[in-house]
Write a structure and sequence with these properties.
301 residues, mainly alpha, 66% helix
Length: 301
Amino acid sequence: MITQAAPPTPPAAVVPVRPPGKRRRRRPDLFRTLSRVLIMLIVIVQVYPLAWLFLTSLRTEQDFATGDPFALPSSLTWENYARAFETGDLGRNILNSFIVTMGANILIVLLGMMAAYAIQVLGFRLSKLVRGLFLIGIIVPVQIALVPLFIDYSAVNLLDTYLSMIIPLAGFSLPMAIYLFCSFYEYIPKETYEAASLDGAGPYRIFGLITMPLSLNTVVTVVLVNSIFIWNDFIFANTFVLSEDLKTIPLGLQNYIGAMGKVDWTATFAAVCVTITPLLLVFLVLNKAMIQGLESGATKG
């Protein structure tokens, strides 16, 4: 009897041993590289106007008038800032803008939080319809309210007051604030409110002790987003302000236009640098809170 021999087993594959200290080089990530290049371009586009504005505010009048306005200054001077405060009442303009911005933001935050709390948390019949009506206000142009508001303010003696600017600025900013607060309240666990109700807390106590502290990042977002619009507002201030004492920054910059339309450009740029500095500092300090507030309505948890 002849037995068939088993086939020989193939030799085991030899795994090459990589010497220590040498790692496999990763291929460059094309997407990451393009993303970084795009971010750098966006940063350059955003930073260049600010850098140019600051450098121009330090140029002499003769250098700016006779040289290339986009070239580097041949000499630097701080006299433009002194002339900016002498030519116009810049300090009072900044104070007026600060009062209007703070007053409008207080109304926006309080009314927006309460409206969103009633619509999203408490709930009532036709609450979604009410929310939709508020959101329609986002697309309403501010120009259509100028004449009716002017007539009403004249009837109740509100022209040439801080309230004549604060009320419409808060009203037109309220729809976006309600939308942001509703988006945030939608993802607060209902169990939190139920536990507070079982402990005997009413709607006002729940709003003050639970909803308001949790809304801190959203409040920062609402304030920062609306402060840009309010700080730079020109149309309401130009329509309802009649005296020099209540002029805000956009109106105060008109003081740098001299006879025959001649503009003191270097002093104007210095004044603009002074007026945008508070907003830049606030954004640099609170940018993380603003980003978290915008993300809180988009991510659940």
